[in-house]
Design a protein that fits this description.
Blueprint (H helix, E strand, L loop, with lengths): L2 H4 L1 E3 L5 E3 L1 E4 L8 H14 L3 E3 L7 H13 L9 E6 L6 H15 L4 E6 L27 H13 L3 E7 L3 H8 L10 E5 L7 H9 L3 E5 L22 H10 L3 H11 L3 E4 L4 H8 L8 H8 L26
Parallel strand pairs: 3-4, 3-10, 4-5, 5-6, 6-7, 7-8, 8-9, 9-10
Antiparallel strand pairs: 1-2
Amino acid sequence: MDLKHSRSVKLNDGHFMPVLAFGTLASDDVPKSKAAEATKMAIDVGFRHIDAAYVYQNEKEVGQAIRDKIADGTVKREDIFYTTKLWATFLRPELVRPALERSLKNLQLDYVDLFIIHIPTAMKPGEELMPKDASSKVIVDTVDLHDTWEALEKCKDAGLTKSIGVSNFNHKLLEMILNKPGLKYKPVCNQVECHPYLNQSKLLEFCKSKDIILVAYAALGSQKDFEWVEKDGPVLLEDPILNAIAKKHGRNPGQVALRYQVQRGVVVLAKSFNEKRIKENFQIFDFELTPEDMKAIDGLNRNFRYFQSRMFVDHPNFPFRDEY
């Protein structure tokens, strides 16, 4: 097996996805140009999987960075695995393809490698990313996700995306897609919050049984500067057990948290716009955690969510009511 595929997993549609991804989400106070700089650094360091989304509002910059790295000969387009996400205001089936085309236009690319439903809770269609009523309550929409999924299948058939998947789905919502009459393509992945404090072991087992890859976001915990993140949450990277394991291997706790996911068959996102950190986050392929380490990290689970998405709690598709 060549190096490229040894650091990748095979998806249920035959495509390969690199197991370590560079995340491009940044808070509003970070200038958009930073996303371009960081993406270029990440590609230079060795990242080949770029995880992005329409709602991050920086796809123009990220796309430019990818095209610059193709132009200077660092990579070819086919070396890069690019993920974008269908935002919740575009879940109506007739809005799906135009939403993807908008991302492609921003990126100036002909196709993406993966297109996923960002969240299963539809919101009122329109240009506002977070449509709210006079009392600042999110305005939701009711959409049959079967219809949304069919529209994603058509995007795959049209060659606009190589693979399709979902994000923030629980096992019931996944079952609903898998049991859809006339299903043409299964989701290749389910991207969810996953870290030692929320290890998603039941959802991981379920996904493995259905040949769906679990992709972990917030794998290093989360910054407090996003409005929807719990402010008083525990700081994952300060965890004493993670730090003890890191010390034993001569690593930092972030590298241990990322390595943990890769060893349990999870594709993991690492997000940082800091050059030193980007380099460190990529250095997880030259050491291995022992079975004892893995067990100790499993033991840190406390089912704690940084991203609780409470504004959608009344939505019929709110995914976090169930255990997994």
